[in-house]
Amino acid sequence: MAAAGQLVLAGRSSAAVAALGLLLLCVLLHGQAAESAVFNVGDRGGWGMGAGSWSKGKRFKAGDVLVFKYDSSAHNVVAVDAAGYKGCTTPRGAKVYKSGSDRVTLARGTNYFICNSPSHCQAGMKIAVTAA
User: Model pTM?
Assistant: First the structure.
């Protein structure tokens, strides 16, 4: 009978440890999300021509969110690679945002975005944001 009682206690102890672990994981994930910042690209002017200098002097972290606000009948946001950014081209399979109010979570490293409406990228409607 003592062995059965010990087994019940061991089962309860394991469940408590698992619940505590899950709680700790939730607290850590919530803390990380709370540390993420939200940035409005172009500040009050929104995503537009000449946005390339907007990111200068700002510090970004992986997990931060960029909010692109723009007239969706004239512009879009395309997440591109370095070559797409430099050449103002849209690589095959690139993610194209077109809602006019897009939220993009930054990955670690340099994140590149352009507007691929004709001549917009060439006119400066592109940004490169490096997240630590």
Answer: 0.74
Contact 80, 92 (CB under 8 A): no
Strand, coil or helix: 45? helix
- The 10s digit of each residue's pLDDT in 62-108 is 999 999 999 999 999 999 999 999 999 999 999 999 999 999 999 99
Q: Per the structure block, which two tokens stand in for 54?
A: 């907007």
Residue 95 tokens read as 């993610």
Residue whose C-alpha is closest to residue 113's, from 45, 32, 124, 39:
124
DSSP 60: B
**AA letter at 88:** C
Q: Provide the β-strand partners of residue 80.
A: 112
> Do the strands 77-80 and 95-97 form a parallel or antiparallel pair, or are they unpaired?
antiparallel
Q: How many Å apart are CA 13 and CA 65, to the nearest integer?
A: 40
